[in-house]
Structures are given as structure tokens and as C-alpha cells.
Amino acid sequence: MTTLLSSGHTESVLSVDVSSDGKLIASGGEGGEICAWSIEGTLLHKSVHPDTDCTSVCFASLSNNLYVSTEDKIIIYDIRNLSQPVETLSGNQEEINQLVLDEKEKFLGACDDSGEIKIFDLQEKRVYKTLRHKHTNICATACFRPKKPWEIFTGGLDSKLIHWDFSRPKCLNQYNMQELQSNTSDTETYMVNPPFLHHLAASKNGKYLVGALENGILAVFDSSRKNIREVFSLYAHSQGVSQVHFVSDTKVLSGGNDCSIVLWDLEKSVSTETENDGTQAPAVNGGSEAANGSTQSHDAQNESVSHACKVTEIQHTGKINWMKPFLNNGCQHLAIADQSSNVTIMPLSI
Fold this sequence. Notes:
The protein is mainly beta and 350 residues long. It has one domain (3-347): YVTN repeat-like/Quinoprotein amine dehydrogenase (Methylamine Dehydrogenase, Chain H). Helices cover 7% and strands 48% of the residues. It has a four-stranded antiparallel beta sheet, with no helix packed on it. Helix 2 packs across helix 3. Residues 272-304 are annotated as: Disordered. Keywords: Repeat, WD repeat.
């Protein structure tokens, strides 16, 4: 049954995360409210950082740390004693939008409103590198590349996807979402809003990277090779997509401002490509044109792939601010932060 975590936040919940064992939930919201909950729905702790918003919460899997962003600061809690922070990290100049950990949890990435990304060395508790001068607007999201310990992807409200080697630091490539042939001939929805990048997610096996776009589309990239390439787009949302998460190497959940949560199976795109004589949606890198200049065939391919990959759609009660899929007692669940003051825990059949 769906459970509401209530009587914790007094304003909108902006972010949510779940511990790796599925037993502890953290949520951050407007007014600087940070709440920790048991999976049964008991409020275990609440702290307030006035005159700020808590924009991102992130559990470590290999330690007892919980990382929380409030404005331009990163607050670290020990989940064994949430009464007070154990440390605070500083480095960002403007409000942080997302915190992400690399696979080995040696580095923490923090992207902010200035368009910069700070990479913190968690052992030395200092800024390791700063990634700058590529995003020309707010950097909304970051995602470390699986199996590539020095690489990270970032996306923002400049509609750019940037691929970095943060050890040097160096921009390896950049992709302009404006160049993707993503509008359909019979649906005006995808033409109204620009393709801002709100969220990025990568499959653990490193095969796929998916971007959630303001124009209601999911951009799917093949990230199995050195240089990623866009292979197709998924259409289902009627408004901007705010969240995208992998629940397996091929299954993806997306949530958006249309209050819809969609489950996709990317593996089903293979059968569609076979039916179309083995052709894929044309790759778009930077300013390159769609193959043969055929926007119409590209759109038809994306429509066909979307139909094949879409597994199910769930209507939620509000716009999705953040989501986190997780396992508890062997069953798949989804934690949802929306514009209300509650966190929703929803069982999933996957």
C-alpha cells in the first residue's frame, strides 16, 4: 500500500533519498527543513536551517554519512546520530542543485546555479577540482560515469550535456539538446518548452545514459563506448521531465511536471530497431544533422521506440520534484517528493 510520510515538513519537499538497505529515508525541503524517517513512516529526526532550502540529500552506501545541501553549503550527518552535523563542506559560490557520489565514494560532486561543478575529495575534506566555463546557465544535474572513475556528466538550463574528465580537468565533449531532432509533427507539447536538462541517470553497467528534458522528452544515449552518442528519444510526458532513475540495467523510471511516472524497458528498443531493418535513430553529436536530413523518419522511429519501450504509466497526485527507487524486503518501492509537504512511498510492480 502507498504510505504518506507526513507531519515532518511544513512546506514543499524538494529532495528525497533512501539508504542502501532500504530502512532509512531522508528528505529535504523548502525552509531548510531536513527530515529522517524510518521505512515504517516514523519521523526519527528533524532539523531546520532557516532562510535556506534543502535542495539535495544523498546517502552514502559505503559509510554512515548522509550528505545534505543547503544553499551553497554541504552538511554531513552520521546516520547513527542525527542530532547534529559532524562536518560542513564549503566551496560552491551559489545554491547547490544536486549532490552525487562516485562509485567508490571517494568523490562528491556538487553542481550549482553559477554553472560550476565542485568535486570534493571526501578523504581530504576539500575541493579537489572545479569544473567551469562550459555551462552558460544553471547546472542542474550531475552523474558520475560508471566504470570510468575520472569521468562525470553534467547538464543544465543552457540545454547542454557536458562530458568531463574531472582529474585534469577537461571537457571531453559537449552535446546541445537544442540540436536533437526531438519534436513530433502531431504533438505541439514537445515544441513549447526548451530542452533544459533537469536530471541525468546512468545504468550501472555503463551502457546507457538518460537525460530528463524540460520539453517532455527522455534523451537516451549509448554510453558503452568512449564517446557517448544519442540513439533515440522517448515520448510520454506532456510536460517537463524532472527525474529519471534506473531500477535495473535496462529499466528506467521517469517522473515529471505532468504528475506522471512512467516505467520504460530500454531493452525493447532492440526489437524495434530490427523491425526497421536494423537502423537506429540517428546519433546527434553537437551540431551535426540527423541522418539523411530526415526529421520525419527520425520522429517516426522515436514514436515506435517509445511505444515499444513504455511498460506502464502511473498518475501521481502532484508534480514530481524528486524520486528514488529502492528495494525493501525484496520488493521494489519508490519514494516521491512533490509540491506537497509529504513524502510518498509507493510499491512498484516491476
